[in-house]
Design goal:
three-stranded antiparallel beta sheet; 29% helix; elongated; single chain; 23% strand
Length: 156
């Protein structure tokens, strides 16, 4: 091979490698690495997936996963970042620990339940939330309203 052909082949391999190294577009709920990933709202490690939550936010032309250690932190993030281009939101089902769409989840506020940031919020994929009969049942919009009202009361 001549020098030009070798140079062209090396350049082609480098470009192919760069394209192959590009991150895949994030479209669904991310994987949480317990004890490793950090909550985007409070900065604490995510250690208990029963309370984990996530959002996909469009930033600088690409989607970015934003992780939370507590459902309340996701709600607070939503309240504080209304201009963010949010592509999706998920919470972990308290029982199955599967990701569920945050907007269709059934929430229960249990003030005495210890959650990572003290929100007392748990989520379920169905109305099985009866396992916390003392809790207040909420939909997603009600969760945001509840957290907003709590912030206002806290600052007054």
């Amino acid at each position: 091979m001549n020098r030009l052909t070798t140079t062209m082949m090396m350049l082609l391999l480098m470009v192919s490698g760069l394209i192959g190294c590009r991150e895949a577009e994030i479209t669904g709920p991310p994987t949480v690495k317990l004890g490793h990933d950090v909550c985007a709202h409070c900065g604490m490690l995510i250690n208990d997936e029963r309370f984990a939550a996530a959002a996909i936010v469009h930033v600088d032309g690409r989607n970015k996963a934003v992780l939370f250690d507590d459902i309340g932190d996701l709600a607070d993030y939503m309240i504080e970042n209304t201009s963010s281009l949010i592509q999706g939101r998920w919470v972990k089902d308290y029982t199955s620990r599967d990701w569920i769409n945050a907007e269709s989840a059934h929430y229960v506020h249990v003030p005495d339940l210890q959650t990572p940031m003290g929100s007392g919020m748990v989520a379920f994929s169905s109305a099985e939330a009866g396992r916390f009969p003392q809790g207040k049942r909420l939909g997603f919009a009600e969760l945001i309203e509840f957290r907003t009202a709590g912030k206002k009361n806290h600052h007054e």
